[in-house]
Amino acid sequence: MASEGSGLASFDQLVRLNQRTVYQIALSVVGNSADAEDVTQDAFIRAYSKFESLKEPQRFRAWVCRIARRVALNRLRSEIRFRKREERSYDDTPVGVDVAAAAEEREFQQRLREEIDRLPERLRDVVLLCAIEGLEPAAVAAILGIPAGTVRSRLHAARKHLLRMMS
Fold this sequence. Notes:
Blueprint: H1 2-30, H2 33-50, H3 60-89, H4 99-118, H5 121-132, H6 137-144, H7 148-166
């Protein structure tokens, strides 16, 4: 029981040391403080549940930052899907519009969303952040912790893959 308490104290200290960094990563991905606070809390909860399995405690910061980024990106994806569902539910196709063309467009959009979801995570993250959220490659590079050139090449590869799958 003593080791459990000392483990908790150790984890608590790591949270205090890394909370600001984790929050900043979350904020840069989700874009608002309320969601960033939720993501930060979720990331530390997940880290705590796996803390015993961390093989290199000195790498805690990098580890918890990766967890935070994944949690934030998942939250962002959920939000994007929710917004898309809302947009579809309020589909106000004006009278006189070609209903067949509107249905075809909705079908195309659905297929595109499915193909984006099938992309490997490294490509999907870049597409969601650049193409869907409209962030610049430099901003995406900072969020993902990769060079801006890598963001551009992944975006190109993702677009090429999507074009191939959609044709």
